[in-house]
Amino acid sequence: MIRLGIIEDDEEIRTMLDQYFGGQAGFSVLLSASSVEDFFEQWTDAIHPDIVLSDIGLPGESGIKGISRIKRRAPRCQVIMLTVYDDADRVFQALCNGASGYLLKQTPLAKIREAVLSLYEGGAPMSPGIARMVVEHFNPKNTRDLAENLTPREAQIAAAIEEGLTNKEVAIRLDISLETVKYHIKNIYEKLQVNSRHALISRKYR
To answer: Which of 96, 107, 165, 203 could form a disulfide with 160 if both were Cys (CB 3.0 to 4.6 A apart)?
Structure first.
């Protein structure tokens, strides 16, 4: 029997997860709360969850901070983040704080069930896009080769971003509109295979 905890502030999603796993053979939902604080208020010494499914954007304490609290209370309990956030910063914050899996909320219930089973059996489940982000972080393609795909204007904008300029400052420096800057940044992200300013700047120093 896999004993679950759920931390999700969206009542509809929380109820859906509770009812789904509550009706699955081999699963038991021990705790279901709308916040980290409420989760810990309900968590008595008689309750021993194996895995917690937790959102990140929660009222009060964030789900990322909640991971370390859960691990301190029950070191063997594992946490899967189930969230809408797919940016590199939150993914790596969650993993560095002790999360064992990272799924996006659009993941079908059957796939979430598979992920929980995988984690229970020693895996590290992640949504495909998240897994690719993690792999690319540790095995980046050659930045110089990718940068050769940039147009001269895109290279100017990328360099300005690496200097720390905001979109508005880039627009002023290059005497172009803010919308044009945003359009070029979208293309730069695609060509350099990054999804945030932080990731773009980080590539420069690899």
So the answer is: 165
Q: Please indicate, yes or no, whether the overall pTM of this predicted structure exceeds 0.85.
A: no
Closest alpha carbon to 18 in 109, 89, 94, 97: 109
Give the tens place of pLDDT for each residue, 81-113.
999 888 778 888 898 899 999 999 889 999 999
Is the fold of 2-137 the same as that of 143-204? no
**Half-sphere exposure at residue 22, Cβ-oriented, CA atoms within 13 angstroms:** 12
Give yes or no for a contact between 73 and 47, defined as CB atoms under 8 angstroms apart: no
Q: Kindly list the domain boundaries of the chain, sorted by start residue.
A: 2-137, 143-204
- Under 8 Å CB-to-CB from 181, ≥6 apart: which residues? 157, 167, 170, 171, 174
Q: HSE on the CB side for 162, CA within 13 Å?
A: 14
CATH topology of domain 2-137: Rossmann fold (3.40.50)
* 143-204 topology per CATH: Arc Repressor Mutant, subunit A (1.10.10)
Instruction: Supply 98's token pair.
Output: 């002790």
pLDDT in tens, 19-73: 999 999 999 999 999 999 999 999 999 999 999 999 999 999 999 999 999 999 9
Q: Position of tokens 């009542």?
A: 11
- The letter for the amino acid at 132 is R
